[in-house]
Design goal:
Layout (H helix, E strand, L loop, with lengths): L1 H23 L9 E2 L7 E2 L6 E6 H6 L5 H5 L5 E3 L9 E3 L7 E5 L2 E2 L22 E8 L3 H4 L6 E7 L7 E11 L3 E2 L2 E11 L4 E12 L2 E2 L15 E13 L4 E24 L4 E23 L3 E18 L7 E19 L2 E15 L9 E18 L2 E12 L3 E13 L4 E12 L3 H4 L4 E4 L4 E4 L7 E14 L2 E21 L4 E22 L4 E15 L5 E3 L6 E10 L4 E10 L2 E3 L2 E3 L2 E13 L2 E8 L6 H4 L11 E9 L1
Parallel strand pairs: 6-9, 26-29
Antiparallel strand pairs: 1-2, 3-8, 4-5, 6-7, 8-9, 10-12, 10-38, 11-14, 12-13, 13-15, 15-16, 16-17, 17-18, 18-19, 19-20, 20-21, 21-22, 22-23, 23-24, 24-27, 25-26, 27-28, 28-29, 29-30, 30-31, 30-32, 32-33, 33-36, 34-35, 36-37, 37-38
Length: 650
């Protein structure tokens, strides 16, 4: 009933807006922004059968954020739930990070399968200066992409070379004014252009170094750093071979190294025994990515085929491990996808096949063979049917077959109605799934758990988690302003959780929990005048969870209300500034209600020369300290921090 009321409110309010817009009959602007993630073919953001947020390279450049995950947090329906040492977990529509599928140019990126917790390495695997745009599809996309896309899809689209050689050099320095340490710097460079009539090249690289940040003092040996030390280096290259006017080959190479040096991450004192418990960890990931893509245009349509492989080595130290505490894990992910698009009368068809293979080697965790391998294959079809002018019905389905969980079918039905040039009403229902991870299925798997007091083992009888998802809303794109309003509901069943057996003093994975999330998403931007504009978004979320004991509770760290409001001022053609307020509403952690708070950010951008831009600003201007608001906050806001950056184009 709650979802129905939300849906009625959204539709009635925005149908009224649609009639007013129809009378105005102005041409939309952002409605024609092209996106590809929702359908595997070019679509305008308004007509795509999904609700999509696009973050451009310009948005990244002028924002005061210092990472991709930090930027995603600022978009509607998305929350970055960091852990106690600042590791990122992107949640879409209240569902945890494992339900968000990450892509780079449409290809899966995932080298955290060897680690069952605390892995956020994928967020720092792409240089920020290589990103052309990020498409965030809110809602399930299993009918096209298969497992993991229950909450949504994040597709990072990198820059492609143009006809002329161009390049950029950018640097950034960030200083945290409160607490102790925390300095950060980033240096990046990119260049691209044509080598000759057939070949072109793009190269982007980045070095990032972040000192640990302590909310009190680095000399306090009883408190881990709130933000761990991090050092990363990234390189991505694409060489394009133009085979003909209608065909091309892309050769991709990527290198990513991300080191988290050894440091205290857990401390507890037991006064009854006068005993201190201290745990240390250190991790380093080295990843090589190789890719080959073929794109072609034919008389009947277009085709895309690619092969992508990630080779990853993870050095993993944890003082909780039994000896040896230093371990080396290897993971290889191979991904093949082939699909085609064509038009047949009123039907716009997309069909393809998808092949995946994952191999994890970890002899100290997989106790018999020292490794585990999973394979899956899939076929998928999507048909967008033009029923009448402006009315489109999208039907999609995908069948996955795996050597671990068998077959699974994911359907999707979506209806979109373009009222006029400005207003689109759309909504649909879909089913999605998340396959068990390799380590969760293996009977060989055994890793220390319960704070070092027990072991966690795999379960080969696990089934995929499943979900049923509804959404409906409206988009309005007008000259000078844009807005959207969406109501959604997600029901996730057979969730996999680690269950504790007190008799055997062991934990193992079982399908038992459930989650329900529902809410409303609103976003808008308005040009008040040639020099003033405002933008904002609002998310209302209801997130409930039924645990392995059948107890109903609130999902941890899911704010009921989140809002953002930004004001931008173009003082001159070369100088602009902005102030943004972020409101985080009340939320729960372990059934304890946590207070709401508001954070302010300020940024300024100055074009000193035609090819030189200087940026500066302050994040957390009002210095929000969550520890002072409540000791029960499991995450934190970085103290007031100042940054300055420069970008030189050549």
């Amino acid at each position: 009933m709650h979802f129905k009321r939300k849906l009625i409110v959204v539709l009635l309010a925005n149908l009224a807006i649609g009639q007013a817009v129809y009378a105005a009959a102005q041409e939309p602007v952002d409605a024609q922004q092209v996106v590809v993630t929702a359908t595997l073919r070019n679509h305008s953001i308004a007509s795509a059968p999904a609700f999509t947020t696009v973050v451009t390279a310009e948005d990244i450049a002028k924002s005061p954020v210092n990472s991709l995950a930090d930027l995603l947090r600022e978009t509607v329906g998305v929350n970055n739930q960091t852990d106690g040492t600042g590791r990122d977990e992107i949640q879409i529509r209240g569902l945890g990070g494992k339900y968000t599928l990450m892509l780079v140019n449409g290809k899966r990126i995932s080298s955290g399968g060897a680690l069952w917790r605390g892995s956020d390495f994928d967020f720092s695997s792409i240089p920020l200066n290589s990103i052309k745009r990020v498409e965030i599809v809110r809602g399930p996309m299993a009918a096209l992409y298969g497992s993991d896309a229950i909450g949504g899809v994040i597709n990072i689209i990198t820059k492609t070379p143009g006809k002329e050689w161009t390049g950029t050099l950018n640097t950034e320095y960030r200083k945290v004014a409160t607490g102790d340490q925390g300095d950060q710097y980033r240096i990046g460079a990119s260049t691209s252009g044509t080598i000759n009539d057939q070949f072109s090249l793009s190269v982007s690289g980045e070095v990032y170094d972040r000192q640990p940040w302590f909310s009190t003092s680095a000399s306090d040996t009883t408190r881990p750093a709130r933000l761990e030390k991090k050092q990363s280096q990234n390189l991505v290259t694409t060489t394009t071979w133009k085979l003909s006017d209608t065909q091309s080959l892309d050769f991709d190479f990527g290198y990513n190294k991300d080191k988290r040096p050894r440091a205290l991450y857990y401390y507890a004192y037991f006064p009854e025994w006068n005993f201190e418990s201290k745990d240390y960890r250190e991790q380093e990931i080295t990843r090589y990515t190789y890719g080959l893509s073929h794109k072609a245009s034919w008389d009947w349509g277009t085709s895309t085929a690619f092969l992508n492989q990630e080779d990853t080595t993870i050095d993993d130290f944890n003082s909780r491990y039994n000896k040896p505490q230093q371990r080396v894990l290897k993971e290889k992910n191979t991904y093949v996808k082939v699909y085609a698009n064509t038009e047949l009368g009123i039907n716009s068809l997309t069909a393809g096949v998808d092949l995946r293979h994952q191999l994890i080697k970890d002899p100290l965790t997989y106790l018999k063979t020292g490794e585990i391998s999973t394979r899956s294959s899939a076929i998928f079809v999507e048909d967008e049917i033009s029923l009448t002018k402006g009315l489109h019905l999208t039907l999609a389905g995908r069948v996955d077959d795996s050597n671990t969980f068998g077959n699974h079918f994911s359907p999707k039905t979506y209806l979109s109605y373009q009222v006029n040039h400005a207003v689109t009403v759309k909504g649909g229902i879909s089913k999605a799934f998340k396959a068990p991870e390799a380590y969760q299925l293996s009977p060989e798997y055994s890793v220390i758990s319960c704070g070092g007091a027990c072991y966690l083992s795999g379960n080969p009888s696990l089934k995929p988690e499943t979900s049923t998802n509804f959404e409906a809303g409206v988009e309005v794109h007008q000259k000078g302003w844009n807005m959207s309003a969406v109501a959604f509901k997600n029901d996730v069943d057979a969730m996999i959780v680690a269950n504790y057996d007190s008799v055997k003093n062991t934990r193992n994975w079982i399908n038992i929990a459930k989650a329900k999330t529902s809410g409303i998403e609103l976003q808008a931007d308005v040009e008040l005048s040639p020099i003033f504009s405002i933008n904002g978004n609002y998310t209302h979320l209801k997130a409930d969870y039924t645990d392995e004991a059948g107890k109903e509770t609130k999902l941890d760290n899911r704010p009921a209300n989140v809002a953002k409001l930004g004001v931008n001022w173009k003082a001159t053609t070369r100088l602009q500034t902005g102030l943004t307020a972020h409101y985080i509403g009340r939320q729960f952690y372990e059934n304890v209600e946590l207070p709401a708070y508001t954070r302010l950010d300020w940024n300024l951008s100055a074009r000193l020369q035609d090819n030189l831009i200087l940026r500066m600003g302050v994040k957390n201007l009002n210095n929000v300290n969550l520890e002072q608001k409540s000791k029960d906050f499991a995450y934190f806001e970085l103290g007031r921090n100042y940054y300055v950056s420069a970008t030189l184009a050549f």
